[in-house]
Queue: 4 jobs
Job 1
Amino acid sequence: GKLEDIQLFTASSRNYAMVADGDAGLQVVDVTTPTAPALRGYYSATTGDYATGVRILGNYAYATFATSGLLTFDISSPTQPRLLATLAISGYAWELAIQTSGTGTFAYVSSDGSLFAVDVSNPSSPALRGQAAINSSSQSSVAVLGNRLFVTNGSRPMEMIDISTPASPVSLGMPDQNSWHSAVTCAGGYA
């Protein structure tokens, strides 16, 4: 596999890393003892597919698989991730961000020039609610800060998307035309 993304979480007083590991799929690694990480569970990618992104919210994992789309998992038993649903996404599903607001829980999935808004309020039944064109035609990094989503892929300037109405994402353009980034994250009120 190839490490594409990683999310840390805690369950039953143990620390875990959920790893999007390319063609090896998703791997659950116990990192309670950092010097002795141990593989505890996994979900295999189908032939020709690969895990590209993962996010954790409570007892659920949301993962992007390039050709399968968005997959949702019950991880209440972390060593046995249980697939709940798959939602096909047009193009290759690259990366995702999760936002919880008064209108529900949404996964925003980047895919070959598009951003898909998926309602995952019911992880067993994800529903596509909206789509917007983005200025990124390949693998993109995405992050949410309040009602803004930031998208970048290293070959174009970072783009800002208004997600105040989750089902109708709207591009606000590229605030800094002279700065290209390969990844984006949000912390402390900044992207």
Job 2
Amino acid sequence: DRLKAEKRLPADEVRRIAVAVADALVAAQAKGVFHGDLRPASVILADDGSVRVTDFALGKVVSDYAAKAMAGGGGPKPKVAMYRAPEFLRTDLPDGKSDLFALGCLLYESATGDRHFPDGYRASCGEPHKGYPYHDPCEAHGDLDPALSGLIRRLLAPNPADRLPDAAAAAAALLGAAFEPANLLRPGEQP
């Protein structure tokens, strides 16, 4: 509700909320569970300022999802397309790195106030290859905090292998830990 009302949150507030979300993902992943449907409606901001992540039902245990998908039965899909990692659209198996993509979407929306990615970025998500450069999802938002936009770029890497290794690394990056920058295309460059 707050994101709907304010559209764009201050960078410090974005970080505080995102660290709590990343910590919840760390706890879930430690039990072999990924969220699978992370979106603003799954993040509850309590009156006391605490953050709760809800609705882990879609995530199930990763091995159960993988077994279904490998058997050709597919699996559940996230409800909101914007937060759906590119691997949900391909035959790749989603996992905890899919949650990192959704966390990047949450960061993007809350830091920019924008729910739409540039067309070039979405086109980069079709058939990504590890290490290939991709269009900058933050290209229209040059006023973003540089560290936050750098993290958003890494979390929104079209190929899961190019994202941060896990939710713990995302939490650490939100708290200031260094990480490798994203491999982005220069403006006008094609993949």
Job 3
Amino acid sequence: SVINNICEIRGVGFGKVGQPFRLALSGDGKAGSIDISAYFVGKKRTILRTKELKLIGEILKVFSSSPHRDIERICDKVLKVLYSFWNVEHSFIALYDAKIGELKVIAGFGFFPKELERAIYSKGEGITGKTFQLSIPLFATEDELINKTGLIKRIQHKELNFFTAPIRTAEETIGVLGIFKEPTKEYSVEK
């Protein structure tokens, strides 16, 4: 099979690839043969899920290769990985700052420094604050955004969707990842 050939060429055992790939395809890892699972999932979805696995792998490499103390540098690298793999031209990571009691952007990609300075969110404020408060991923279109940074006005020639995801430790939500992405057929809301 193709997967066996790739494993052989890369010098990686099938056991290291098989279960994560099966999990990505089926959602629970309990699917049978990978080739049959890929067939039923379909070519487009299999390719999309494979790309997602690559992205996650690259993000995990950033965390495993960086010193624990330099969180801003790690976050900056994660945003660059999102740009490299998903062409995310504008993104940020905001962490909760206990001193001010609000979320503050500590890393941004595609923003001007003054835009990031304005990006401070109270718990529950806008999509970013709601993601932090509820600890769930959220989606918004441009007309639903409070646009604290001014990014939407600056790049008004582009249609953007905004996705957020909570950043959690085992005990609590500590921040939010925000991604502005142009709608594409591959990542359509209608799908």
Job 4
Amino acid sequence: LLWLRSAMAQWLPAPGETHRIWKLLTMHHPPRTPRGCACRVFGKCIGGHGDEHALDQQLQQALEGLEPPDMVFAGHNHCYGRSHPLDLKGNPVKEGQGGVRYFVTGGGGAPLYGIEGGDPRLAKAESIYHFVYMRLTASAAFYWTIDANGRVRDSGCFEKGSNVDLPLAPDFRYDDALPPRCAVDASQPAV
């Protein structure tokens, strides 16, 4: 993954710009994911997918000493999952900066996997057909997960560099005008 490390080292703001750019990493296989279960036989989960440990180790090596991406988007697992901000070892980060949010968006049409147990790394995990709609400003990310019937199943926002996720008001739609920031203060969403 030397090419990834080289590319990420060049992710710098353009001359004269004071804000940091958003760094999104997309891939097919998710390094961190809800544990999927394709079916059960005698109570045991058969099929589905879990974390990709070898991929995760490769990413850790490639990102060592670099500012990590803000978000990682992957598919492969036939479900939806959104992590809390995680450090490079996969532990939830509640304060400070540097957490990476992982979105698994694999509910595009193939048979869905069931979700196995509670995973403390995950903020949300569902077995639904869906897509994720994302809108970014210079300082805030807004996301909506919309199911096959057009209902919003997960939504929120966060400030660039912050490890705090804030909910969006139920009446704030993905096509409404965005405020410049996600939060009025550290605890109140702007919308």
